[in-house]
# Entry
Amino acid sequence: MENVLRSTRVTLEMIKWEHSIFALPFALTGAVLAANGWPTLRVLGLIVLCMVSARSAAMAFNRLVDARLDAENPRTAMRAIPAGHLSSGFVLVFTIVASCVFLVGAALLNRLTLECAPLALVVVLAYSYMKRVTRWSHLVLGLALGIAPAAAWIAVRGTFSPRAALLTAIVILWVGGFDVLYACQDFDYDRKVGLFSVPAAFGLERAFWIARVMHLGVVVLLFVMLHVFGLGVIALVGMCIVVVLLAYEHMIVSPTDLTRMNAAFFTLNGIISVVFFVSVAVDVLHRR
# Structure
C-alpha cells in the first residue's frame, strides 16, 4: 500500500496535475460562452475529464521523451524518470491509458469531438519534440493548451465557430509569452546542447521583448473578445485585472533577475486564468 501511495504521489508530481488550473478555466470559459450559461453536468464533466486526461498524457509523454535531457540539466535532474522514482515503462503505459481515457471521453460527447480528438492528441503530444525542431516551440505549447476552449465549444454545440478560435488565439499568445520567459532559465543549457528556444536564438534581452509583444497581443485580443461576445462591465473589470496581472508578471522578472520566475509562472498565471474564467462566467450568467 505504501508503494502504491508513493507511486501515485510521484505520478501526480510528474504530470503537475495542479497546473491544470492554467488551461481548465479557459476550457470552462469556452463551454460557458458556447452554452450561454452552464452546460449540462454530463457535458461539463466530460469536458473536465477530456481536459485533465489529455494534459496528463501530454505531460507524461514529455517527461518520457525528455528523460535524457532532464538527466543532464541540473534544473530538471530530479524529475521522476532521471531520478529513478518512476520507470520509462510505467510512464509509457500511463501515457497510453490517459490518451485512451481522452478518446473515450471525446466519443461520449458528440461526433465532431471524436473526429477532432486524434488531431488534438497529436498536437499535445508533438509539443515534446518541438524544442528539437523550432525556436517557436513556445507557440506550439500555446496551441496545445489553446485547443481547450475551442474543444469545449465543440463539445457543447457540436459545431465549430470562428469565435471559439479567438479564445484559442488568446491562450496561444498568453502561454507562448510566459513560456518564453520560463525558458530563459535554460538559456545556457539549451545553447550548450543545441535545443531551440526563443531565448537561445535571440538572447535574454530580446526574449523578454518578444514575450512582452506576445502579451500585448493578448491584451488587444481580450478587448476584441469583449466586443465579439457582447460581454458587459463585469467581464470588462475582469479583463482589466488580467492586464494588470500580466504587467506585474513582467515587472517581477528581468533578464538579469530570474529568481522570482516561479512566482510569475505558477502563481500569477494560475490567478490570471481563474480571474478570466470567473469574470466571463459571472457576466454571462448575470445577463441571462
About this structure: The mean pLDDT is 87. The CA atoms of residues 173 and 214 lie 5 Å apart. The radius of gyration is 19 Å.
